[in-house]
Amino acid sequence: MKQSGKPAEKHIRPLNRSVTMACVLFVVLLSAVLSAATYRIYTSSMYERYQRELASVVTYVEGHVDKDDMSECARTFEESEKFVACQAFFDDFIDRYEDIHYLYICSADIESDPIRVVAICSANSTYEKEFVPENVIGLGEWGEDWYPEETIRRFHEIQMGDEDVYFVNPSEWGMDYSLVRPLIDSQGRHFATLCADIAIEEINRTVYRNIAINIAVILIPGILFILLLLLWMQHNVTLPLRQLEQSVAEFAGKSTGRRDPDELLFTVPEIRAQNEVRSLANAVTKLSVDMRDYVKGMIDAEKETRDLQEHVSQMNAIAYQDALTKVKNKAAYDKAALALQADIVNHAAEFGIVMTDLNHLKRVNDAYGHEHGNEYIVGACRMVCEVFKHSSIYRVGGDEFVVVLQGRDYRRREQLCAALRELFSQSALDEDAEPWHRYSAAVGMSAYEEGDDVEAVFRRADQAMYEAKTAMKAARE
Question: Where are the alpha helices (DSSP H) in 148-233?
């Protein structure tokens, strides 16, 4: 069934849609890139800010801790008066300072089994003490699920060091960003760490709020830009292009099937845009004029070429065809031999050559005349053609024929040669036929082998034919 050209138009994407998609993609990409940059900048800025804040808090709190007394409490797990005062200070501080998620002093014990973090002094808010007392942590308490083993070892490493360390601290109470400072008493004992945590969720909330503001600042001008661009495109590009497209489509419809080149002229529509679209319309008009002139020239040239091709075809047919048998001649064989040699060079050769030499042609010519001699040649050639139906056959001499075997005939070469010999043998013994219809011939065949050229295959086939002819002559004697 002939396919209509209309369905192809469904794949055409309108220019307005393409421009809109490109603009939206650009704005989205710009928002994504700037948001990623904003995230990195704000995150870095927020962490720097909270590092300063945590350092200020820890330094301030450390000033209210009697380290020697706290060291003794950490050793004995017994509360002193100073410890109670420090605990009250911690609780009051956590109530007043909302940015701090946790404030505590703890000691990492990696010698115990299991290893653990032991609470020394933890800030407990008023809310926790009144409504969730089970969350209140006292001196010496610890929990197996408070921290993962890796974090406990990190606490111990910091406790035994001399520097403040900031790190992301996963615990039973959530993910926090912590400042951990080692506490050292007057005897030089590293007995605990003072820690202040800020919830990472709070940091992320601040970052995401700033990113949302950033995206809004990008999207609002971006949407306005897209709208203005589309209005401009509609007036200066898409509408003129649509007018030009409609005119070209109408021209194409009217010119289809026209045989008169003078009808292949395009009338440009009225386009008000003073840009490349107007130039394109003028260019299409000039193209239609050039196309008309070109078609006229092509029509004349086509007629001349057709006449020349017919003449050349006739000449080629004469040049490569044997006039008597209508099979190919010696010139055609020479041309085929060159092609076979090219296959050998390209390692793509697979062929055989059959040589057929007619017997008794001179006897038929002398006894019955050349007219019957020609019948003898044509009849023998017909037998060769009947056997080798899928191969090229060449008359290369008065009584000699060459068959180039390829494809299926090559694969059945032995069987076909045997069949041809049998046909000639039966024909030669047919007493009911006229003498010039008793066809007899010697047949020799050779196949291409690695290292051969075409001439070598031809010589072997000729030698095989000669030996067959000699054997036939000896048999008759």
Answer: 149-159, 200-233
Q: What are phi and psi of 346, to 5 degrees?
A: -90, 10
Residues of the chain with pLDDT under 70: 1-16, 235, 239, 243-244, 250-275, 277-278, 281-282, 284, 286-292, 294-296, 298-299, 301, 307, 311-317, 477
Q: Which residues in 450-470 are b (16+ Cβ under 10 Å) and which e?
A: eebebeebbebbbebbeebbe
pLDDT value of position 190: 94
pTM value is 0.44
Domain covering 13-256, topology: Beta-Lactamase (3.30.450)
Output the pLDDT for position 5. Answer: 45
Q: Do 328-476 and 13-256 have the same topology in CATH?
A: no
Question: Domain ranges in the chain?
Answer: 13-256, 260-306, 328-476
3-state class of 185 per DSSP?
Answer: coil
Closest CA to 190 of 180, 200, 199: 180
Helix (H) or strand (E) holding 97: none
- CATH code of the region 328-476: 3.30.70.270
